[in-house]
Amino acid sequence: xxxxxxAPVVRRFAAVLGAAAATAALVASAPxxxxxxxxxxxxxxxxxxxxxxxLLEPPLSLAPTATYSATLDTTCGTIDLALDAAAAPRTVxxxxxxxxxxxxxxxxxxxxxxxxxxxLQCGDxxxxxxxxxxxxxxxxxxxxxxxxxGTVAMANAGPGTNGSQFFLxxxxxxxxxxxxxxxxxxxxxxxxxxxxxxGVAGGGGDGTPAAEVVLNRVTAAPA
Length: 223
Description:
GO molecular function: peptidyl-prolyl cis-trans isomerase activity
Mean pLDDT: 86
Largest sheet: 10 strands, antiparallel
Distance between the termini: 33 Å
Strand content: 25-35%
Protein name: Peptidyl-prolyl cis-trans isomerase
Helix content: under 10%
Pfam families: Pro_isomerase
EC number: 5.2.1.8
Catalytic activity: [protein]-peptidylproline (omega=180) = [protein]-peptidylproline (omega=0)
C-alpha cells in the first residue's frame, strides 16, 4: 500500500497502516512552534501486551442500529471515540472484539508523523509496525473517504490487510481513500496535538513519538 506525502515521493505505509516493512511511511515533520503545548505524560500502568492471536476474524456480532463508542486511556490523557458501525461494521466489530480481549491494553503507540500527514499510529502489541492479531479483514467505507482532524482509520499493508493497527488524525491530512475510516475523536484531540508538539524521538518528522504514549486500557461498547 502506498501513501503519498506532500513531496513527489510515494512512501510505503509500514502498517501505518498495517504490517508492512519497517521502512514504510506515514510522512512527517515537526509541527509549527507554539502550535500546542507538548504532552505531559505519566508512567505507564503495570502490565505488558497479551499478544493474543486468532486464525479468523471474529463473527459479526454488532447490533446493526446501535451507536458504539470507545475510550483510549493513555499515559498522555484520555481520548474518546465515536465508532461508525453503520459505515464500517466489520472494522468496528473487530475493534470492539480486540478491546474486549484486552488486546490493546499496555501497547505503545509506535509512530508519529508531523509533516504532510499528521497522525499517531497505535494498535501494534509489538510496537514494531509489523504486529497484528493473526487475522485480516477487508476494507470498508472507502468511497469518497477523507481524513480531517479527528478521523480514526485503519492502518494496512495494502488492500484487504486490516488487522489491529489504526491511526488517529490530529490535523487535516491528505491521504488517498485507501484506509478504512471507522470513527472520530469526540474528546481528547488536545492529547494528540500535545503528543505531536513533543515531536519525534531523535528529531525528524516520522518515527517513534518523543512522548511515550501507552494505551493503558481500551474499552469499546454500545453508547
